C-alpha cells in the first residue's frame, strides 16, 4: 500500500471516505466535487487521494469491510460463550452496516482485497456456527451453510425493516434490541427442537 499517511493526510482521507459514504448513499450518481464539498476539502484533494470514482469506491469498500471484520472479531467468536458472542457480533455488525449502507451494498465495491476480507468473514462465521452446534446452541442436524445464509438474511432484514431502510442512527441506538430480535429468530429456527 505504500508508506503510511501523515496524520493530517489520514484525517483528510477519513473525512473524504465518510463524506463519500454519506453523499453516495443519498445519490449514487453524485460527483467527486459533491463529495469534496461534503468533506470540506478541495476537489483536487479528493483527486490527489483517489485517481477516479472507482478508486474511491474501492477504498470505501476496503475500509467498510475491514471495520466489519474488526467488529466481528471484537465479539470474540472463538472464546466467548456462543450466545454472548452471537449477540455481540450481531449488534456490532448492525452498527457497522448502518454506517456503511451504500458501500456494503454496492457491486462496484467488490475488489480482490474485499473478496479476501469477505471470505475470512464467511469462513469465521462457519467456524463459529460449528462451535455453536458442538456446544448445543444449534441443532445437531442444522445445515451450517444454510444457517449462515439465514443469519445474514436476518441481519439484512433488521437493517432494512421490510424494504423500508431504518434510519442509521435508529439502528445504532437500537442495535442491541435488533440483535436480540435477530438472534432469537435465528435460534428458534436453527436451535435444538424438542
TrEMBL record:
Domain HTH tetR-type: 10-68
DNA-binding region coordinates: 31-50
Signal peptide residue numbers: none
Species per Swiss-Prot/TrEMBL record: Streptomyces plumbiresistens
Entry keyword set: DNA-binding, Transcription, Transcription regulation
Top-rank taxon: Bacteria
Protein name: TetR/AcrR family transcriptional regulator
Alphabetical list of InterPro entries matching this protein: Homeodomain-like_sf (IPR009057), HTH-type_TetR-like_transc_reg (IPR050109), HTH_TetR (IPR001647)
PROSITE patterns: HTH_TETR_2
Keyword Transcription regulation in record: yes
Amino acid at each position: 500500500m505504500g508508506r503510511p499517511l501523515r496524520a493530517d493526510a489520514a484525517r483528510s482521507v477519513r473525512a473524504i471516505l465518510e463524506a463519500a459514504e454519506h453523499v453516495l448513499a443519498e445519490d449514487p450518481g453524485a460527483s467527486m466535487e459533491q463529495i469534496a464539498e461534503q468533506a470540506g476539502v478541495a476537489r483536487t484533494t479528493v483527486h490527489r487521494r483517489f485517481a477516479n470514482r472507482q478508486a474511491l469506491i474501492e477504498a470505501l469498500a476496503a475500509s467498510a469491510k475491514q471495520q466489519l471484520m474488526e467488529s466481528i472479531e471484537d465479539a470474540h467468536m472463538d472464546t466467548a460463550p456462543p450466545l454472548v458472542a452471537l449477540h455481540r457480533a450481531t449488534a456490532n455488525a448492525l452498527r457497522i452496516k448502518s454506517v456503511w449502507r451504500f458501500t456494503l451494498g454496492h457491486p462496484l465495491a467488490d475488489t480482490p482485497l474485499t473478496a479476501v476480507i469477505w471470505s475470512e468473514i464467511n469462513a469465521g462465521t462457519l467456524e463459529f456456527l460449528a462451535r455453536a452446534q458442538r456446544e448445543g446452541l444449534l441443532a445437531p442436524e442444522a445445515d451450517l451453510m444454510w444457517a449462515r445464509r439465514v443469519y445474514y438474511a436476518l441481519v439484512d432484514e433488521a437493517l432494512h425493516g421490510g424494504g423500508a431502510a431504518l434510519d442509521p442512527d435508529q439502528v445504532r441506538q437500537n442495535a442491541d434490541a435488533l440483535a436480540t430480535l435477530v438472534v432469537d429468530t435465528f435460534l428458534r429456527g436453527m436451535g435444538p427442537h424438542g
